[in-house]
Amino acid sequence: NLLTPGVTRSKNSGTFDDVEIDPTAKGFNTNGGHMDYNLYLLDGVSIKEYQHGTNMFSPSVDDIQEFNQSTSNYGSAFGAEAGAQVSLVTKSGTNQFHGALYDFLRNNVLDARNFFALTHDAPPYRRNQFGGNLGGPVVIPKLFNGKDKLFFFFGYEGFRDSRLTPQLSYYPTPSQLTGDLSDLAATGGKPVLDPLSGQPFANN
């Protein structure tokens, strides 16, 4: 979408470490219009998610036959929205069987260690995007004479993401757990006050 003239990423879009931090991360503005003005079609049916103004369904790239995006001067058939008209057409079967299998793998072997991690190696990370598709004819000789009449196409895509991420927080030291808060002064902490007198306890 962003390669089309007049299209820019929405201001609210963004990701952090490959994880979406905003549900509008896939949004884009067309010719100065708001991202909510875009229309998304899949085989002629609207798949727009109106709460965030984006598409509610993203088919696998291997399942798409044609992709078209119109940003201006489009026909009246695409007049439901004032922004870009994004149209996806899925593949269909043919008279021959065709299929594909794929698996995109990313793991911690090539990742750098997190600066705050306690281990010398990168934490375990497994990310798999896998799937496949199959299309072909539906052969019923008595009804369709076996050719050019009825076809099928099936596609599936799965996503698995497993990672360990260091979590940073403040925890009491062993001495603080026993009520000895004298080490707070060394770390710049505030003195502990007696709730009755309002005066600090000696050595916290």
Number of extended strands: 13
Q: Decide which structural class fits the backbone.
A: mainly beta
Q: Termini distance?
A: 61 Å
Biggest sheet architecture: 4 strands, mixed
Strand content: 25-35%
- The order of strands across the largest sheet is 6-5-10-9
Please write the string of helix (H) and strand (E) elements: EEEEEEEEEEEEHEH
Work out the helicity level.
Answer: under 10%
User: Spans of 5+ residues with little confidence (pLDDT < 50)?
Assistant: 14-25
Mean pLDDT equals 80
Number of helices: 2
Radius of gyration, in Å, reads: 28 Å
What is the multimeric organization of the chains shown?
single chain
Q: What is the molecular shape? A: elongated
Précis, in short:
This protein is 4% helix and 34% strand. With 204 residues, it is mainly β.
